[in-house]
Specification:
With 241 residues, the protein is of the alpha/beta class. The chain has a single domain (5-9, 20-209, 216-225), classed as Aldolase class I (TIM Barrel), CATH 3.20.20.70. It contains eleven helices and eight strands. It has an eight-stranded parallel beta barrel with strand order 1-2-3-4-5-6-7-8, surrounded by eight helices. Strand 2, helix 3 (55-64) and strand 3 form a beta-alpha-beta unit. The longest helix is centred in the last third of the chain and has 20 residues, at 164-183. The structure holds pyridoxine-5'-phosphate. Pyridoxine-5'-phosphate binds at residues 9, 11, 45, 72, 92, 94, 102-103, 133, 153, 191-194, 212-216.
Length: 241
């Protein structure tokens, strides 16, 4: 089976840095450690309120690491301009609400078709691989296809935060949506809320090509160190294939 890529999201290193407004801990240092420990890419979400990653981090990250950078961003003019300036390898379009604690749901790609279509085309024309962060719902996959997005990332939050039969049902929804995306030539990714305890069934879905994982890895790194935690996640993902 094809290798499953691990994108390490470094946002919450910046959350800790920003708690004191200084330079430490530096999310770029975390990206370097993650890349040595087996990450295949680095993900950073430049939120509109700059609560963790800030503008300078994007340029520094792209300059400092060899791995592909995936910039998560809202579908706004401001974010498109920043992406076009820095040209990350990939841009993942996420819905954003200022008051939310984290990205709580997927993008409504169907409803936002007219807004997203030209925005995706501009990013794609600049050589940026666009992904849409959507719910594992066939209507959203079809909307992504209509929009010409080469990649979708399925929101695994509902899976991660449920148990028993509800979790099994959500896993089936993700597997079905991944199969539908792949059948239509869209590369499926997944992420949100993934941990050592819940990653294996998601990693075993054969069509999924990449997982983006952040909060758990950075939290666990407090106890075990970032290198070992990334290496363990990498090993678990490989074992699941
Ligand atoms: N993928 C996307 C599109 C996200 O918005 C997030 C959260 O920023 C993640 C993956 C990672 O989620 P978590 O931090 O819960 O691992």
């Amino acid at each position: 089976m094809n290798k499953l890529r691990l994108g390490v999201n470094i946002d919450h290193v910046a959350t800790i840095r920003n708690a004191r407004g200084g330079l430490y801990p530096d999310p770029i240092r975390a990206a370097l450690i993650a890349s040595e420990a087996g990450a295949d890419g680095i993900t950073a979400h430049l939120r509109e309120d700059r609560r963790h990653i800030i503008d300078e981090d994007i340029g520094r990250l792209i300059g400092a690491i060899q791995l592909p950078v995936n910039m998560e961003m809202a579908a706004t003019e401001e974010m498109v301009a920043i992406a076009l300036k820095h040209r990350p390898h990939a841009a993942c379009i996420v819905p954003e609400r200022r008051e939310e604690v984290t990205t709580e749901g997927g993008l409504n790609a169907a409803r936002q078709h007219n807004h997203l279509k030209p925005l995706i085309a501009r990013l794609a024309d600049a050589g940026i691989r666009v992904s849409l962060f959507i719910e594992p719902d066939p209507r959203q996959v079809e909307a992504a296809l209509d929009l010409g997005a080469p990649v979708v990332e399925f929101h695994t939050g509902r899976y991660a935060h449920s148990e028993g039969e509800a979790q099994a049902a959500e896993l089936r929804r993700i597997a079905d949506a991944a199969a539908l995306a792949a059948k239509n030539g869209i590369e499926p990714h997944a992420g949100h809320g993934l941990t050592f305890d819940n990653v294996t069934p998601i990693a075993a879905i054969p069509q999924i090509a990449e997982l983006n994982i952040g909060h758990f890895l950075i939290g666990e790194a407090i106890f075990e160190g970032l290198g070992p935690v990334v290496a363990r996640m990498r090993a678990m993902m490989d074992e699941a294939r």
